[in-house]
Amino acid sequence: MPETQFTSAQVADSALTQPVANAKGVTLQSVTKRYGAVVAVENLTLHIPAGSYCCLLGPSGCGKTTTMRMIAGHEEITQGDIYIGETRINELPPAKRNTAMMFQNYALFPHKTVWQNVEFGLKMRGLSQADRQPRVEEMLAIVGLSQFAHRKPHMLSGGQQQRVALARALITRPQVLLLDEPLSALDESLRVKTRGELRKLQRQFGMTFIQVTHNQDEAYALADQIVVMDHGRIDQVGTPQEIFAKPISQFVARFTGDNNIFMGEVSSVVHDTQGHLIQLAVEGLGTLLCRGDFAQAGTQAACCVRADRLKLRSLSRVAEPEPAVNRLSARITAIEFTGYITRVTLMSEKTGAEMLYKSRTTDLMQTPLAEGQVVAVEWSAADCVFLAH
Ligand SMILES: Nc1ncnc2c1ncn2[C@@H]1O[C@H](COP(=O)(O)OP(=O)(O)OP(=O)(O)O)[C@@H](O)[C@H]1O
């Protein structure tokens, strides 16, 4: 079945797509959720600005869904407070919170038509047939499903069902829309297309969107603010660019990108015009130079360098690279062509540690590499990010 896309014209013509005048931010203040002995969310404090797109990102079981369900009111808060705008909502029933939730499996009513599914929220609010009619029509046009209005969900593709779910959530014009892995049921190409449309709708509606995802590419593409969670706690909050370029912990560096991580002990910290220049003594590799905001000499820490920030130099004639900071020799153990990018796996000659280098395939075509080849691997201190924990 061909996918109908949202079109700019449909969206621009719609009165519904005027920004939600009363979009509200969400604030969590020291929020904890326990299930018996299990601490699902621990002392979480977070502000999500009004009208922004926030992604809660983290591995399975880190507490993302629980956090969202507490905001929606589907889960009681054990401790702490949640505010929508200025209003404390701890005790408000879900229907009074002015939020809407879009579920992973879409949770459409199977026996209702697309029209009836989308109309449902307005009916529950007691709007008359005459008032519902133009709003449903308009919403179906926005999501490009007008011609499917009388079909049942099982007669739609996954992408179309996803749009019905989105239309059903948006039609009541909630102040906050909560989305639980909304793209996970779609195949790769549709997922990429649909996330662009989701972002466009969020911008045009000016609504606060909070989305749960375990996929960092999705979070990078969609979010104004990414909240990286681990074991019920927040590890880092930042823009996609900050999370990508400046992870603050080993967990974030591992989870959000192809980072090479080195563990060691801080041997010196020098403050200069660009911040802190930190020396990290790494067993087997000597001293690495990295940059960070704060470090304390004598503490155990780590640093990371992204796979695309390494530089490789052939060592065909010289067995060892001349000694220098942030340089080591490594053997290429695998070369994986993935299209635009080629991934090169290396093994440090001294420590046996595995490293990853990523290059544009076209660049590698100029200076080909071969499995088994020994190369000098180097990187600048500016690209080497200090990780305090
Ligand atoms: N009703 C429950 N009773 C007991 N433990 C629960 C309950 N719901 C969630 N948990 C536990 O709380 C923790 C957080 O769960 P949560 O569903 O919020 O994680 P998540 O990050 O959304 O994971 P996923 O990506 O797999 O959905 C997990 O350890 C989970 O097992």
List keywords for this structure.
20 strands; Rossmann fold; 25% helix; 6-stranded mixed beta sheet; disordered N terminus; binds adenosine-5'-triphosphate; 389 residues; globular; ABC transporter ATP-binding protein; 5-stranded antiparallel beta sheet; OB fold (Dihydrolipoamide Acetyltransferase, E2P); alpha+beta; transport; AAA+_ATPase
Task: Give the topology.
Elements: H1 8-13, E1 26-35, E2 38-48, E3 53-57, H2 64-72, E4 79-84, E5 87-88, E6 99-102, H3 114-124, H4 129-142, H5 158-170, E7 176-180, H6 188-205, E8 208-213, H7 216-222, E9 225-230, E10 233-238, H8 240-245, H9 250-256, E11 259-272, E12 275-282, E13 286-292, E14 300-306, E15 311-314, E16 327-337, E17 341-348, E18 354-360, H10 361-366, E19 374-378, E20 384-387
Parallel strand pairs: 3-8, 3-9, 6-7, 7-8
Antiparallel strand pairs: 1-2, 1-4, 4-5, 9-10, 11-12, 11-14, 12-13, 14-20, 15-19, 16-17, 16-19, 17-18
The chain binds adenosine-5'-triphosphate.
GO molecular function: ATP binding
InterPro entries: AAA+_ATPase (IPR003593), ABC_SmlMolc_Importer (IPR050093), ABC_transporter-like_ATP-bd (IPR003439), ABC_transporter-like_CS (IPR017871), Mo/tungstate-bd_C_term_dom (IPR008995), P-loop_NTPase (IPR027417), Transp-assoc_OB_typ2 (IPR013611)
Domain ABC transporter: 26-256
